[in-house]
Design a protein that fits this description.
- The protein has about 230 residues and is of the alpha/beta class.
- It has helices spanning about 20-25, 65-70, 95-100, 120-125, 140-150, 200-215, 225, and strands at about 1-5, 30-35, 50, 60, 80-90, 105-110, 125-130, 185, 190.
- It folds into 2 domains: about 1-150, Alpha/beta knot (3-Layer(aba) Sandwich), CATH 3.40.1280.10; about 165-225, Trp Operon Repressor, Chain A (Orthogonal Bundle), CATH 1.10.1270.20.
- It is built from 7 helices and 9 strands.
């Protein structure tokens, strides 16, 4: 998968994309990440990428020319998604990350200031995504979250692919609790069932824990029949 980031701050991504599983996936060729600065495509000698909004109002708006030119300079690998990072977008979810793994190329547009010219939203972006119901200084942090969430799902990124299947949100439930050695830490013991070696009982315990944890923390995720149990 090729991931192109269009951002005024390419240096923001230098360290994160080189670290941990993400860095390994890039090193192994599972994913490729490139950053393009729209300022390099500004039509004037001052490399201006923002301007006052028509009709007045506070703040500045990112101009359409540099963003369109930056995206149009990129190679095209179909199927491709051009994703605008915006608080007005659909909140990111695990199911969306799964869907995005089916694309060969993701182009991530990182807005700044008061946002982007509406023509970018209408005629350039194919998707709009948000990190949540809040506003950040720019689209870089949401873009990085998306990259991490998608790349870790690509085959070969995570060593044990089975570990992805029981994660929170994969089955519509939160993940069950995990324990490791020592069995007793400061008087807090690992549940006996996990030490029993009875795999069927352990699986049932974990399933029950998922339901209980979801009921307590995210009841909105539960199907109606589970809410009533």
């Amino acid at each position: 998968m090729r991931i192109d980031i269009v951002s005024l701050f390419p240096e923001f991504f230098t360290s994160p994309v080189a670290c941990s599983l993400l860095g390994r996936a890039i090193g192994q060729g599972i994913a490729e990440v490139q950053v393009t600065n729209p300022r390099d495509f500004a039509p004037d000698k001052y490399r201006k990428v923002d301007d006052l909004p028509y009709g007045g109002g506070a703040g500045m708006v990112m101009k359409p020319e540099p963003l369109f030119a930056a995206v149009e300079s990129l190679p095209v690998l179909e199927p491709r998604a051009v994703i605008l990072m915006t608080p007005q977008g659909k909140p990111m979810q695990q199911s969306i990350f799964r869907e995005l793994t089916t694309f060969n190329q993701l182009v991530l547009l990182c807005g700044h200031y008061e946002g982007v010219d509406e023509r970018v939203r209408e005629h350039l972006a194919t998707h709009e995504l948000s990190l949540g119901d809040f506003v950040l200084t720019g689209g870089e942090i949401p873009a990085l979250a998306l990259i991490d969430g998608v790349v870790r799902l690509l085959p070969g990124t995570v060593g044990n692919a089975e570990s992805l299947e029981s994660e929170s949100f994969e089955s519509g439930l939160l993940e069950y609790p995990h324990y490791t050695r020592p069995a007793n830490f400061r008087g807090w013991s690992v549940p006996e069932i996990l030490l029993s070696g009875h795999h069927a009982q352990i699986a049932q315990w974990r399933r029950n824990q998922q339901i209980q944890r979801t009921q307590q923390r995210r009841p909105d995720l539960l199907p109606i029949e589970m809410e009533e149990t």
